[in-house]
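Standup notes, structure subgroup. Blocker cleared on the WTA input:
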Amino acid sequence: MSDSDSELALSALLHENRQFPPPAALAASANAQPGIYEEAAADPVAWWGRQAEELSWAEPFGAVLEWDLPFAKWFLGGRLNVSYNCLDRHVEAGRGEKVAFFWEGEPGDTRVITYADLRSHVARAANALTALGVRAGDVVAIYMPMIPETVVTMLACARLGAPHTVVFGGFSADALKGRILDCDTRVVVTADGGYRRGAASALKPNVDEALEGCPDVRAVLVVRRTGQETAWTEGRDQWWHDVVEPQSDEHEPEAFDAEQPLYIMYTSGTTAKPKGILHTSGGYLTHVSTTHRLIFDLKPETDVVWTAADIGWVTGHSYIVYGPLANGATSVMYEGTPDTPDRGRWWDIVEKYRVSILYTAPTTIRTFMKWGEDIPARRDLSSLRLLGSVGEPINPEAWMWYRRVIGRDNCPIVDTWWQTETGGILITPLPGITATKPGAAMTPFPGISAEVVDNHGDAVGPGEGGYLVLTQPWPGMLRGIWGDPQRYLDTYWSRFAGSYFAGDGAKKDEDGDLWLLGRVDDVMNISGHRISTTEVEHALVSHPSVAEAAVVGAADATTGQAIVAFVTVKGTTIDTGAEGEALVAALREHVAREIGPIAKPRQIFLTPDLPKTRSGKIMRRLLRDVADKRELGDTTTLLDPGVVNSIRDNMSGGEDDEG
Ligand code: WTA
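Run returned:
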């Protein structure tokens, strides 16, 4: 985000002064009651200690926190099994027949899975992984569609103390390979494919391609989901139904240290190499279960929660799998896309399962707005009582639409700010307490300390904008970057002394409430997915025709930001006409291959030169102005000020419509 962006956002928000108090009935019985903020603030560490006692510990913890900046340990000496907490303890308490998941496949097939069922599936999978040689501490890679076996595999890993790394099914073979190598994985769990947009979409071929560069992987466990033709490597590949299903459904969970690694999730940073964000067990589970209970006001006996996100992202980990299951909730899980077979699919699902808590991303809400309110209006959405938003700043217009059309003006909206690194929600309204403002994430969750600071790290005053920082450790925080403690320190803890810098800009309004303004670094946010400009540039210049590339995030009405690339080609002439168009198409495909379809640039402009400073740095700020069709900012440090104008004059081409 450039300075001009944040100023624009700031002034736009100054005009927003609507406020919505909680519905009285919800407030009266809300899990979080007024007083909770003061109670937590009196001693945040002790407050988190009390939340942790909601979990089942095999060995009680001693000290709640050991903080040696930037390294935290939570719940010292405590031992627990995450999978036991998500499954067995509910079954033992007589809730085995309660539904854990209503699963709906895209073609319309369904599965109802109780806590007892899920415990049996997980026990079998844990026995199978053990038979494949997986031991505590080994990293298992998961590359799967949105099917129950994905959850089963995650929990089986957790049961064994073997951290998992789930790689989003939309990532390419190359991205998968990079992650497998980075965490030295020996076992991969995948499926033949999954259903998307009405067709079977293969996954296994990407695994096969990735594994050509991963000689140490000895076993690939494959779920048969679509039944499509699947290439097979004898000795390495094994069908899930052959290996998992015959196993015993008894498995004794071992208790692990509270700091046992639970998972690694890769996310984009400001360099080309994705960061393996490490989360551990006791603190993470405490954080996600507490936030899920209090922010979504979860009543496990009666609610049906639908976190409509992919399990391959952190939102799926924390609020489809670990938070809801630790709380004994009933969830909906849907495999496919919102417009299959038609644009009413989501609302059919809400009506069918009587979903009461819906959690999704602003980009999806804006898509539904575009499709028209008559579509949800034709369904019975009266079961909904609370709505959530996550992934990017939600614009007031989308917020109001969500409230009116989906929430029928009587569901509180919780706009929840957090990151892969934070593990769980940190800034959010509480639904029975907060009078919400359209577009504001409002206040730090109880027990969380956040501040908005200026360039020098000093807190800004009311009505001012700056950088969002976290000033105290929190239980779900990342414990580091896999294999790279120095990068962990440099990335998060060096910009502002003593504080975690999130990379986001924020504004504190006159009441002290927080409004998130988007990224301030070179990380774009495309439909709520983080992609670094450097990563895409890296992919572009790996193409033989490309000399240099500069990538920026441009404003986009649906996806929040869209990727725009400026590319200079090797040789002397700029490619124009049909040849140029063919190259642009080839480059978009190339990026999809290198990273995944989500990273495909919306537009690529071929240009003879890029604007550079005298010292040779590409001035992305100017390219952002160009991409957003804004007045150019200061150009005095440019080596050749004519370059930007000629790029602008050439900008008629390069458009492409598909995502
Ligand atoms: C952005 C997703 C504004 C932010 C859970 C953050 C948000 C990045 C919000 C993390 C929100 C997430 N309001 N911005 N409510 N939620 N963001 O790691 O820029 O995929 O840094 O985690 O998304 O994205 P990530």
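Discussed briefly. The radius of gyration is 24 Å.
Next: hand off to the docking folks.
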